[in-house]
Design a protein that fits this description.
Structural class: mainly beta
Radius of gyration: 14 Å
Helix content: 10-25%
Number of strands: 11
Strand order of the largest sheet: 3-2-1-9-10-11
Shape: globular
Largest sheet: 6 strands, mixed
Number of helices: 2
CATH superfamily: Metallo-dependent phosphatases
Mean pLDDT: 97
Keywords: Metal-binding
Family: Belongs to the metallophosphoesterase superfamily. YfcE family.
Enzyme class: hydrolase
Oligomer: single chain
Low-confidence stretches: none
EC number: 3.1.4.-
Order of helices and strands: EHEEEEHEEEEEE
CATH topology: Purple Acid Phosphatase, chain A, domain 2
Number of domains: 1
Cofactor: a divalent metal cation
Length: 169
């Protein structure tokens, strides 16, 4: 099980609270960019983080690929792939990289869908939600024997009922 958050926009405290909740129990913690915090902030110890379009610190990577629980996970903020207009460009990039899971932020809205053989996840925003579901949120991803479970949680760490997904491969 790993945690995905994004778009905290200077709210260091919420990043800290999520980190403290799952540190030591989650196999990985991810932040998909737009933290607006310094890249050398100690909060990032133990969190895989990338830069977003609002992050100007050159210490961040734009894209990272890591392996977690035997799965290749691609992480990018998404603005460089124009995810606000759809996932076509990001899906081509993820396919080229051989990603099992592709994480992204930028649009501040939850997305959980399979394109080709890749699971795409946007965890929403922990500070500035947009769209129809106006809840500050993050995602908990569980790798199953034959697929994935994606559970969106609010900042009280409670499941958001309409945002619970299981994907069978």
């Amino acid at each position: 099980m790993f945690i995905v958050m994004s778009d905290s926009h200077t709210d260091r405290e919420i990043v800290k609270r999520i980190k403290e909740k799952y540190e030591g129990t989650a196999s990985a913690l991810f932040h998909c960019g737009d933290s607006e915090l310094p890249s050398n902030d100690e909060i990032w110890r133990g969190i895989t983080v990338v830069s977003g379009n609002c992050d100007y610190d050159e210490g961040y990577s734009e894209v990272k690929m890591v392996e977690v629980e035997g799965k290749k996970i691609l992480i990018a903020h998404g603005h460089q792939f124009y995810v606000g207009f759809g996932l076509e460009r990001y899906s081509y990039f993820a396919e080229e990289k051989g990603a099992d899971i592709a994480l992204f932020g930028h649009i501040h809205q939850p997305v959980a869908q399979i394109i080709g053989k890749t699971l795409f996840i946007n965890p929403g925003s922990v500070s500035q939600p947009r769209g129809n579901i106006n809840i500050k949120m993050y995602a908990v991803v569980t790798i199953l024997d034959n697929g994935y479970n994606v559970s969106y949680r609010d900042l009280e760490h409670k499941e958001i009922p309409d945002l619970q997904f299981t994907f069978n491969l």
